[in-house]
UniProtKB/TrEMBL annotation, chain A:
The keyword Nucleotide-binding applies. The keyword ATP-binding applies. It comes from Umezawaea endophytica. SMART domains: AAA (SM00382). Belongs to the ABC transporter superfamily. InterPro entries: AAA+_ATPase, ABC_transporter-like_ATP-bd, ABC_transporter-like_CS, P-loop_NTPase. Residues 2-227 form the ABC transporter domain. This is ATP-binding cassette domain-containing protein. Keywords: ATP-binding, Nucleotide-binding, Transport. It holds the Pfam family ABC_tran. It comes from the Bacteria.
Automatic annotation (TrEMBL), chain B:
The chain crosses the membrane at residues 18-36, 56-75, 96-118, 138-159, 166-187, 229-247. Keywords: Membrane, Transmembrane, Transmembrane helix. The keyword Oxidoreductase does not apply. This is ABC-2 type transport system permease protein.
Length: 302, 252
């Protein structure tokens, strides 16, 4: 379990993380979501003792990171897959990490096997593709068989196959009862990966809730209806729902009534329907709506 | 001990330390060979003369020592290190020890290599190492290399960038210390307190490496050779303590 309490970090006058508190439970994948520059990486670095918070603290199973005896046995982290020496082989990279925490070379070969890098273990890490580098980073995080795992934007730049692999891997880790915290700036990615969401913007907590609940709250359900008798249908619906027209093809967009009720109403009045389709609100639109106020760098309106 | 093993794996699993070591040895021993081959009756070969270019090797080893830290910052492996070993001071001390011991060994290889090749080239010259001055001049090289490596690790830790750290070390050791002597009146007095001057004093005090009048004027050092070594060590270790304190406090 990870507990953050009142974490605050300033860089000069800039507040990167502002009084942030949350808990990450074991046994599920928790998504750490926010736009670029929201303070996700800084928060993870404070949890891992790399950066010192100006205020507040982060505890891992009740201890500060610096108090852990063999940290890799408790916490595995992949903050940046590029944190390897390009002229050092993948196996040597893992060997020194393992040695520092009294982990055997046998375990090094095991984790290499787990992430599918055995064949390239002797090759220099500098020649790895991004996907391979991510796998090496994950191998490093798994070395000590830790109970708590942190991944910072692990799917950035990966091909679809790699994304699916990482997603399944994290689900397996959580199913083993581990605590998994994974950051991303993409809600659509998190919707498929995380059970629980911690959403931040400009260093402040926006929401901590289950992914399902977050999406339900954040999106509106509309129903698209096309009919040759659109005008008549619109009059019928007006009493119980909000109706607008699609500007492109003139279809009705009904908000506040489910598709079944609309169909029943149409049938009862002998109205022919050409389309009756529920529209899930766009996740990205909802996310942008939520974090609009807190995005650090806006693109200029064109 | 574990941390020493970690740093040893790190150092020897990349190529650049090997290149630096090879360069330090060949450069210095090669220069010693050139000098020995060109000595004559007017400028006779001696133990001291065979050691006169050990500074070459020292500079290369300092670059290696600085790189051992700055490449970790450059590639982010220092953060991986601090994640694996949250006690930053211990991790950096282990690195310093490994680099310094290696530098010491290279120093001995360079010194005895230079002496050996000179002996081979001029078998008739008086090359016996039979006074404490001569022993200090040859075997002391390892100590000077080790301490200058400590100093370089400290600078590397403070500066964190390869270009910056190497520039500072080279400009300081090669130019600042010798050029400061050109300032009229006080220049020489300042020089008598500069660390590499003392390292040199430790190696060469009381030895007649160069004939009278050749080379820069002799400085009037406040300490004897071993005092000079202690002074050089104090400055190197002092700088390291500062670097460790800074590294501990600052965000990685």
């Amino acid at each position: 379990m990870i507990e953050a309490a009142g974490l605050t970090k300033h860089y000069g006058p800039t507040v990167a993380v502002d009084d942030l508190s949350f808990t990450v439970e074991a046994g599920r994948v928790t998504g750490f979501l926010g736009p670029n520059g929201a303070g996700k990486s800084t928060t993870m670095r404070m949890i891992l003792g790399l950066d010192t918070p100006n205020k507040g603290q982060a505890l891992i199973d009740g201890k500060r990171y610096s108090e852990l005896k063999r940290p890799l046995g408790t916490v595995g982290a992949l903050l940046d897959a590029k944190w390897v020496h390009p002229n050092r082989s993948a196996r040597s990279h893992l060997r020194w990490l393992a040695k520092s925490n009294h982990i055997s070379d046998k375990r090094v070969d095991e984790v290499l096997e787990m992430v599918g890098l055995t064949a390239v273990a002797k090759r220099n890490a500098g020649g790895f593709s991004l996907g391979m580098a991510q796998r090496l980073g994950i191998a490093g995080a798994l070395l000590g068989d830790p109970k708590v795992l942190l991944f910072d934007e692990p799917v950035n730049g990966l091909d679809p196959e790699g994304i699916v692999w990482i997603r399944q891997f994290m689900h397996r880790l959580a199913a083993d009862g581990r605590t998994v915290l994974v950051s991303s700036h993409l809600l659509s990615e998190m919707a498929q990966t995380a059970h629980e969401l911690i959403v931040i913007g400009k260093g402040k907590l926006i929401a901590q809730t289950s992914t399902e609940q977050f999406i339900k709250d954040a999106t509106e359900d509309n129903v698209r209806v096309r009919s040759p008798h659109a005008v008549k249908l619109r009059e019928l619906l007006a009493g119980s729902a909000t109706v607008t027209s699609d500007e492109v093809d003139g279809a009705l967009v009904v908000h506040g009534l489910d598709p079944a009720s609309i169909g029943d109403l149409a049938a009862a009045n002998g109205i022919v329907l050409h389309e009756l389709s529920p529209q899930r609100g766009s996740l990205e639109a909802a996310f942008m709506q939520l974090t609009k106020e807190s995005v650090e760098y806006h693109a200029a309106e064109s | 001990m574990t941390l020493l093993a970690v740093e040893r794996i790190k150092l020897f699993s990349t190529r650049s330390p090997w290149w630096c070591m090879a360069l330090a040895v060949t450069l210095t021993v090669g220069m010693a060979a050139l000098i020995a081959a060109n000595t004559n009756d007017e400028f006779p070969l001696s133990v001291g003369v065979s050691q006169s270019f050990s500074n070459f090797g020292m500079i290369v080893i300092m670059v290696m020592a600085a790189l051992a830290v700055t490449t970790e910052y450059r590639f982010g492996t220092i953060r991986a290190t601090f994640l694996a070993v949250p006690g930053r001071v211990q991790a950096l001390i282990a690195k310093t020890v490994v680099v310094a011991v290696l530098a010491g060994v290279i120093g001995e290889v360079v010194a005895f290599g230079s002496w050996g090749i000179s002996t081979l080239i001029k078998p008739n010259a008086d090359m016996a190492i039979n006074s404490s001055v001569e022993w200090r001049n040859v075997a002391g090289t390892g100590l000077v290399f080790a301490l200058s490596a400590v100093l370089a690790v400290a600078v590397g830790t403070l500066v964190r960038q390869t270009a910056g750290a190497v520039a500072i070390l080279l400009v300081y050791a090669l130019l600042v210390e010798s050029l400061i002597g050109l300032i009229p009146k006080i220049g020489v007095n300042i020089q008598e307190w500069m660390p590499f001057m003392h390292a040199n004093n430790f190696l060469t005090a009381d030895s007649a490496a160069l004939p009278e009048g050749a080379g820069p004027p002799r400085l009037d050092f406040p300490f004897g050779p071993w005092g000079s070594l202690a002074y050089f060590a104090a400055i190197s270790v002092g700088l390291l303590v500062v670097a460790l304190a800074v590294a501990k406090k600052r965000d990685a």
